[in-house]
Known about the structure:
Domain PTS EIIA type-2: 491-634
Number of domains: 5
Organism: Bacillus chungangensis
InterPro entries: BglG_antiterminators (IPR050661), HTH_11 (IPR013196), Mga_HTH (IPR007737), PRD (IPR011608), PRD_sf (IPR036634), PTrfase/Anion_transptr (IPR016152), PTS_EIIA_type-2_dom (IPR002178), WH-like_DNA-bd_sf (IPR036388)
Pfam family, one: HTH_11
Number of strands: 15
Strand content: 5-15%
Number of helices: 24
Keywords: Activator, Repeat, Transcription, Transcription regulation
Amino acid sequence: xxxxxxxxxxxxxxxxxxxxxxxxxxxxxxxxxxxxxxxxxxxxxxxxxxxxxxxxxxxxxxxxxxxxxxxxxxxxxxxxxxxxxxxxxxxxxxxxxxxxxxxxxxxxxxxxxxxxxxxxxxxxxxxxxxxxxxxxxxxxxxxxxxxxxxxxxxxxxxxxxxxxxxxxxxxxxxxxxxxxxxxxxxxxxxxxxxxxxxxxxxxxxxxxxxxxxxxxxxxxxxxxxxxxxxxxxxxxxxxxxxxxxxxxxxxxxxxxxxxxxxxxxxxxxxxxxxxxxxxxxxxxxxxxxxxxxxxxxxxxxxxxxxxxxxxxxxxxxxxxxxxxxxxxxxxxxxxxxxxxxxxxxxxxxxxxxxxxxxxxxxxxxxxxxxxxxxxxxxxxxxxxxxxxxxxxxxxxxxxxxxxxxxxxxxxxxxxxxxxxxxxxxxxxxxxxxxxxxxxxxxxxxxxxxxxxxxxxxxxxxxxxxxxxxxxxxxxxxxxxxxxxxxxxxxxxxxxxxxxxxxxxxxxxxxxxxxxxxxxxxxxxxxxxxxxxxxxxxxxxxxxxxxxxxxxxxxxxxxxxxxxxxxxxxxxxxxxxxxxxxxxxxxxxxxxxxxxxxxxxxxxxxxxxxxxxxxxxxxxxxxxxxxxxxxxxxx
Length: 634
């Protein structure tokens, strides 16, 4: 039995809370049930780890959980690990060492490198394989973008969903808890979005579980900074309702951290929220500086920025409590530890890195369950980042008369839940902090700014107001989408391959001219024009709408690219007349990546109205803006 199969088998059992049937195991590992029985016998010969019954199999020695290496038995997971290792080790890796580390053959890694080079091309990176060494070639900015991309691939919309949390903490009714919290926050004019609510619920469920198991925070803390504010009153009510429901007691320290949690997560409509700048009013500055140092080390080692205000506040509060638990020998059990290790290996690895650094600085021991909680924060950050990419970030300006501000915010959230994210709320326009993050201002007051688009609405919003907002959101979303498409197109379009007003005598001369340019830029071999001319002899590649698309019959290009000539005056192409000539060179290994671009591009060129618009392009930048806009419209 190969080590990687053994690890995958044991990791799967470790991630299950109960029995696993032979058929489920066989399906997961893509083997027969007979092979599963053989695996069990072979493992138990070395050491009795697995119990069996009519219900299936499970680990009998729970101390062994967590001692297995992460399974790398899927190509995508393995490729991500290889790329991550190459980003971290800028000097390169010995391919034999890498083979031993991830338990696969040299030939498998070589094949992964070929596939990985196709994947990382949009990042303008390349893996160079020289003798026994592989190295990632490219600039630091590109490597950072790639690392963020790899980690964001691991997260999903259900990373921290209530379904996931409820499955882990079955004894608590999370839906009922949520209803109570929403009601209490509303009473105190405190507003949270759905994502933030999930984080608050997770924190509360973990807190309830710890208190029930006699693991309480017992620091001697002063609450003078917090007395009388809205979060203090809301936290008091939430604690009381939880105490009554679960027969537990929130001591003063537990309430303190609940207040801080609400301050960092709620949009306080008439009170300044807890921020990185005000954190030291409530916590020892040591923890704020420690949090900054840990995130800086992550940036240095993994080339990623894990930072926004909300994350930093949450992270700092969390490590303060973690250090207290570690120094007081308190165990914070996490029922999702093994799921996180198996499903999100790179996120978990960063959590391990942070924990190791913290252990050295604070002289403490951090257990696996605590590492998993750190992974929660990191995974949530990337999940949040991914979610916000598809939303328009808004600021709201509205006076806080009675509940006018709260009503406006809630109506906007309800109406445009999937389209907007309100990240600032202000009673006065002058109090807004204008940043690059804000994409739209929705205001009930006159506002003077041309820097950011703004929409005036009535304090008690009308249907006409909704229509105006929707129209503006469509424009902003369209602009975002065009930028995204444009970035994708730049994989295959190149300013060096774009030309205006090149007038030659025949289509043969155009083919030779463009083939030579592609050859000089290392897209094709020297004889590329021969195969394009051979294809042209069979049938003209000119459309009947002023476009020619010469190409080879083979996918024999060194890399995929598109060479373009746009002429103000039409030229002869065999029996046809053309104004736009696009020579397409396709590399066989990149055909799947290119196929969507190719299909959309050809569809655009087949419409005369589109051709007329593209022919007006004055330069490469203008052309890219036009093609991105047209592709987004398909």
